Each structure stands twice: as structure tokens, then as C-alpha cells.
User: Fold these one by one.
Assistant:
Number 1:
Amino acid sequence: MAELTHLDAAGTARMVDVGDKAVSQREAVATALVVMQPETFRLLQQGAHAKGDVLTVARIAGIQAAKKCGDLIPLCHSLMLSSVAVDFELDPEASCVRIRAVCRVMSQTGVEMEALTAASVAALTIYDMCKAVDRGMVITDIALQQKQGGKSGHWQRGSE
């Protein structure tokens, strides 16, 4: 089993020193799912929600969250992201929004946390903007789908 990397020899939490790692192009893809009542979904899909364009606000929130990941997650490195994309797939049959966040950076460390944070905050923003009509929404399936770059190379969910 691999060792946890945020512990020093004494077992104390620390920020990992990436100073000796090579700078390389890195990318991570994370997803999340927001399940809601059909009427809530229709309001969102039609852009008829009283609070405005829910998906545009959620996209901006996800991007901002990825940029602030180092401030939100203890021991996470602050990165100069080269790009962040947050996209949505509306599924009327399942009455849900599928969120996909892609983060890229040229760095000594990966962007998995940034992608996961972007997907999570986009989902939370959808919840926040729609909760007045549907407090029973469920945010689920937050997961890293793939990462590329760095010493460990490429990883994809389902290929482990």
C-alpha cells in the first residue's frame, strides 16, 4: 500500500515538499452530480429560476474555487492554473445535472484537488441557488475521473 504523503517521519502533518520534482504539464478531470425534483430541473433547464442563470453562476463559482483551492484545503499547494473549465450535462430523464471540471497547470504538483474543488463548489452553487424550491436535492458522485502528468503519469477511473 502507498504511504500517505502529508506526514513526516514523526507522523506530523506537513505540506509536501515538491521542490525536487520536475515541472510538467498536468491535468485532472473531476465530476459531480446534482439530483433534483423534475420541476426544479425544468426551471433550471428553461432558465426560469427566480435567482437567474444558475449554470453560469455555478460555472463561475467552480472556476473561482479551483483558483482558491490552496486557501480552502489545508496543506494544498497554491497553483497558477493555466486553465479551468466547468461544464454541465443536463439529464432530463434522471432529473439531474452532471458536472465536469477540467484543470490544467504547468507545475511540480498535480491539480486533482483543484478539479475536485471546482466540481464540488459548482454543485454546491446549484444547490444554493435552487434550494428555495427543492431542499431535497442530493449532491453525489464527486470523484476524480482522470489525471495526467507528473511522476505517476496517467490514471483513469476504472483502469486501476
Note: The chain has a mean pLDDT of 89.
Number 2:
Amino acid sequence: MPELPVPELLALDRAHVWHPYAPMPGRTDPLVVDSASGVRLRLAEPVHGRRELIDGMSSWWSALHGYNHPVLNEAARGQLERMSHVMFGGLTHEPAVRLAQRLVEITPEPLRHVFLSDSGSVSVEVAVKMCLQYWRSAGRPAKRRLLTWRGGYHGDTWQPMSVCDPDGGMHQLWSGVLPEQIFADAPPAGYDAYDESYADHLRDMVARHADETAAVIVEPVVQNAGGMRFHSPAYLRVLREACDEHGVLLVFDEIATGFGRTGTLFAAGHAGVAPDVMCLGKALTGGYLSMAATLCTPEVAEGISRGEFPVLAHGPTFMANPLAASIAHASIGLLLDQDWALEVKRIESALREGLAPAAELPGVTGVRVLGAIGVVQLDHPVDLAAATAAAVRAGVWLRPFRDLVYVMPPFVMGDEDLGTVCEAVLAAAVAG
């Protein structure tokens, strides 16, 4: 395909391409990326004097190994020579089987069954459908609502929107249209901030609503796009015990936290508990292709199979895409074949040191770090254009939102680049 001059490309983009969380037609021009390698994005033309930017976002938290990785490239090439896609209804293939086996091996016991889909939001849709159908199959169709806590975010499709924060989230537009779910108070902020009175609140909510609740769904340890808030892992144990006591399923949305991001392979590991259903996505394929997974226990799967309608009625066209599955299997192998925990700890230390000065900046209300996640919170909404420009001038790509300037770097980022990223976060916080 012949290359378009950048002005022409941007004009066509503005006229035809609808970007996420943006109006149509667009009002600001996005940066044009020409290529990417390692932890760097190469722009089609210089912006604020920069032709290359260090990616502090891991492409919305998915590119664990950076870009253009030879191991993942080889997995893609090898699979392309065999087949890029085949329908999964009535057929199967080795990439999907091997990926499912690997996911079962590395996720908490007793998650043993894997449903592969297209995206993280769809994996949550599948999880909700599993839970609702489980109770219908058990003869308890009244258990049809979901319980969660405020401050969460689970995706932009229908059921996931219903369990995002109904007030502070991005989906207030749909209030009164979405299914009405049950919301506990937001967990107290802070990884070490355990509050027994809040634990009692969770126990009470599960107990009071058990007869109408199919499942509790939460993001374990880190509430991500809902506000980048950390909470005590002990609340996950409280939820596990309460759900077991009152006959409610427990779903962990690990789409953003899975594959080592918080310092344990899955955030559930901080609490030492397992959910009945787990959602995975984002980093599953190392940022190469869209793929997600919903895992469940034998109890959930067998419960559905005993029902009057004994199948899970969900079948995306590109479910278990062999190209994505091959890359995902290679990406997991690449992660586990190294001391990933040591690398995350290294990044955590660098972020703690590099972001600490932000606490003294005017307008900053807090700085927090967990694993390979660093967050600077402001006392006002970020000026996105000004903050982004400041980061670009520092040689870094960041994407602040709401009142947050944050970073989730690829695990392969070196110390010098981490230092540059931290400087860019500070610059963005001042400008924004």
C-alpha cells in the first residue's frame, strides 16, 4: 500500500475514523505511528521535536514484551504458514488446545475450563452469561443480578457497562437503560488499608441480596480504568467466604491485572483465593492481536450442562482464532521463561523512586505504585492536550484520564527509559 503524506492521512482520519472516547468528526489530530520496536513508537513525522517516543502505556496495558519481539513474530509467521483462522464450531486446532491447557496450568485451582473470545469486554459478557445460566440450570432463575463495588470498570459492552461505577464511571448516559445491579461502597483506598467495618459491609451486602444475586464481580486489588485505585487483598478473602456461605458465584476480572502486572502472576494471588470464574485479556497475546479468555470451575460448567438448555449459547466468529492463540501461547511462555517477578519488582522500585517527587508538586493529591503500575493523582481533571504535549516533549507517550497521570510500562523497559518515563509523568502532572 503506498504511503500517504501525513497531512492527507490526518485529513482522512478526521473525516472517517472514529477514535475511542472521541467525537466524530475528530477535533484533535492523533499522533501518526509509523512503526514500533522494543519500547519505542516511531512517529511518521516529528511532534514537539520528537520522532520516537518511549511507550509508557504498553498499548493500553497489553504489550508486556514491547513491540516487534522476535519470539512473538516467529510464532505469528509460523502459524500464518499453516492457517490464520478456522471456525471453532465443530472444529478444533492445536493452538487453542495448547493455550487452554497452559491457562489452566497457571491460573488458580480449580479453574479448569476455558472459553476463548475476541476481547476483554466480551469475556465479561461470557462470564455473566455463565453465572446467570448456572442458576437457571439449577432452577433458581430469580438469581439474576450482579453485585459489585463502586469505582470499578469492566468494559464498554452491555452487561459490563452495568457493573461499572454508575455515578463516577463513563456510562452514566445509560442510567435507566442498563440492567440495574447491586453496588457496595467502594473499597477503602490503599493496598494496606484494611477496614473491618468495610469487610462487614461486604458480608452484609452479599447476605442481604443472596437470593437475587447470581455473582459478585470485582477487579482484584486494582480498580483500573475506574480510577486506578488499589485496595487490600483481604477484601477478596472476605468476598470468597461470603459467597461460599450464601451460595453466590465469585468472578474476578483480571483483564488488566493478569500476567504479572501487580507483582503476582494474577492479582488473586495477593489474597490466595480463587474465583469461580476469571476473565483474562489485554496482555494475553502480548499486545499482538485481540483475544480474551473466560475460565470457570467444573462446578460452573457441569451446572450449566445439567440444565434444560445444556450448552453455553455463545460463539464469536473469531473465537479461538489460531493466529492469536499461537501468539498468546508464545507470549505466556516468553513471560514464564524469565524471572518476570524480579523484572516487575525492578520496575516497581524505579517507579517508587522516580515518582516520589510528584508528591511535592502543586495540585497533586497522591502518588501510588504497585508492581508495574505507577499513578499520580491530581486535585482537578487533567488537561489532556497539555499533559500529553508535556510528555511528548519529554520523549514519552502517556494517556492521562480523569484526574490521573499514570504509567504501565512494558516489562522489558530498561532503567534509563524508566527514569525518562517518570520525568515525563512529572512534567505531565505539572502541565495538566
Note: The radius of gyration is 22 Å.
Number 3:
Amino acid sequence: MHQDQSYLLDIAKFCQAILRLTANMTEAEFQHDERTQFAILYEITVLGEVVKRLSTEFRIQHPTIEWRRIAGMRDRLVHDYNEVTLDLVWEVVKTNIPELLEYITPLLPSKD
């Protein structure tokens, strides 16, 4: 389970980076900012990969989080990239990422 704690820290880091990159951005600005789009797509892809590495036991213990959907988004970005719209990505950024961060924050290892 120790490895899961490391993965949770990575997930938090990626969520925070996504939120930081889009903090003062409107959807229209995002739609026209190719650099931010590429950065966010990368962060979401790696986030999905990290979720896949969490132990089955951990994911079972925390069924509130839709782990399969997070991993599925990664798969869509990698394999079905032509079907992913920026509208969908923006929705993930503004809704799902904050929810995920809020849920995992209490699960993060303490800094003590």
C-alpha cells in the first residue's frame, strides 16, 4: 500500500498543475491556447496512467472515485484522440479534476 501513497501524491500534483494552468482562463481562451491544451492533455494522460497503477485493493476501498472513468479518459486521449473534443477536456478540467483533488486530499500522506 506504500506505493499507493506515492501514486496519490502524483495524482494530487497533476490535478494541482491542471488547475494552476487553467486558473484564470475562460473556456474560449482555452479553446485558442494550443500550448495549454497540449499541457492539459499530457497531464490528464499521465494522471490516468497513475490511476491504473493504484492497487486494486485501494481502488476497491475508495469506490466513490470513478477510477475506471479516469483511466478510460487516458485511453481515449491515447487511442481515440480524434474523438476527444476540447469541450470534453474543459469539462473534465473544471468539474472532474477539482472533485478528484477534493476527494484524495484527505487520503494524502501527512508531511510529518
Note: The CA atoms of residues 16 and 49 lie 16 Å apart.
Number 4:
Amino acid sequence: MSIMQIAETLLERNAAPDWIMRIGIRRLLAQRLREEAGATIEEEMRHKMEMIQSLNSKEIAIEQEKANEQHYEVPSELFLYTLGKRMKYSSCYYESADASLDAAEESMLRLYCQRAGLKDGMSVLDLGCGWGSLTLYIAENYPQCKITGLSNSWTQRKFIEEEARKKKLHNVKIVTADISQVERIEGSHTFDMLFSIEMFEHMKNYGALLRKMSKWMHKQSRLFVHIFCHNKYIYDFETEGATNWMGRYFFTGGTMGSDDVLHFFQDDVKVVDRWRVDGRHYAQTSEHWLQNLDRNISKIRPILRSTYGEEATKWEAYWRTFYLAVAELFGYNDGQEWHVAHYLFAKR
């Protein structure tokens, strides 16, 4: 039995200590960097352009059902016990080292609105709206805005609509649809502001996706994108092989873009501003998710049993490992390898 097989056996029994898992994850990350690095800068650029061409040749998205199965149709209660108060399932922003997860959620949501130039009264489209963290934040803080959230998950739609009802918010509308298939958003042709927070990671053909988004924009519209990425490499989340655990169980059909990847897809939109968010913010976010999971494990285990049946113990270990892996990925090299990129686009 190989070392990787032994590690996976221990993992499935929820018997692998965190310190061993962290060492193993760091070694896999170092291996990934070695595999992606070309012998020369010419080779690296050639490979990057091949990846860009490959994305252009594919459908907008593949394995959408897997993404739902792995994340978005999992009972919301699991995430209520692990995420922060806003249910933000993406990187938060820590204005101080001792900031709480709830405060970091608020900070990143506020940063989105500032960087996008959102004004009260705008019509807003939140693409891939998750559990409504941004949709509900805008609805509360920009009460004259009308927000449409697009999600391909009925579980998420039900959660957001219930939260809006509790908070007496009447400026929120949730549409359930697959963005790779939908052409017209119910209720409006164009929007003043579009947001996409950690949705591109599940996509492939960025050119076709941005072309579709541009049809929902008028000349003054802006599109704000938050995408996690590597500093310079583009690669697919693969599913085969012992080392591709993340792709197999949590990001089937996904893509790790490079920091500059969206610059290659400006036929229909153009970049008007750019920012980077140090990877340590995401690392701290996932450390907080892990702490919440461990703190609430007695409440989470019944949810895991009802969701995964006899595999509940294995999936408890998988969710813990997922949060560990996210923390180690974005904390690698002090947050300077993998991080978050923010883009602001205008329509061409």
C-alpha cells in the first residue's frame, strides 16, 4: 500500500491528525508548483496560452450537477454551523489580525460595494449568489436598490427567500437557473451593476461567459468579479489520481485561473480597474470555518448522518480536510502564491 493510500485510509476513518494532514497538503502544493513550472519562461507562457485556448474551446461550464452535489445542495444547516453570520462562502477580509469571522465577512462585502462603485437606487444582478451574503447585504444597506440573485440551487433560493422574509426585505428576487444555459434574466433586460463572487472557478469558457454577461449590461453598467487564483499558473481541478483529492470531491469540473486570466477575455467587456487580496485573508477565513465546524461538531454530526448515511464519518473528515486544504493553499508562501483577484469591467 502506498503512502497516499495509507493517508486516504486514515482520512476516511477520521483518524489522521491535523498536523500530519497539513504537512501532506503543503507537500502536494509544492509538488503542484513544480509540475506547473516550465524549464524556461518561454515554456511557461506557451503552456499558459495553451490553457487559454483550451478554455475557449469548451462549454461555459461542465459538471454543474457535481458542483451542486458537492456544495450547494448540501443542507444549509451544515453551513449555518461553519460559516459566519452572513453565510459568506468565499474569502473574507480581515482588517485586523484579531478580527472575527463575522466582522471579516462584513468588511469584504463592504469592500465589494466600494470597489464596484455601487450607488443606492441601482438595479443589481448577483450571479451565483450562494446563500445570499451579498444580495442581502446590499438589500439592507442600499434599500433603494433592486437586487436579483441568480442561483442554480433550490436549497439556496429557499434559504435566501426565508432570510429576506425574516428581515422584511422587499427588494430581493431570486431566480433559479444554470448560468451556462440561461439567456434572459427574468424581470429585466439589463442591470446597472453585476457581481460575480467565486463563480468563475466553476466555469470553463470565460469568453462565452463574459459575452453572455455583457448582454445584461448597458453602456454605463459595471461588472465586478471576485475570483480566486494562482499568481501566474492556470490549471484544471483534475479528478484522477491519488493527489487530486480536491478536484475529485469538492471542485469537479473547476478551474484554477491565474491572476491575469480575465485579461485574455476582453472582446465584449474591458477591464477598468484591478485589485489583489493577499491569500492570508482566505487562509484565515478557512481557519475560522474549521474552528466553527469543530466547535459545533455535535450539532453537525446528525446533519452529516442524514446527508451521507453510512459514509458520515468519512465525510466529516472530508469537510475538515477541505477547510484545512483551503487554509493551507491560500496561506502558502505567506499568501503570495494563491490569492484573490478583483476585477471591474465595463461593457465594450
Note: The radius of gyration is 20 Å.
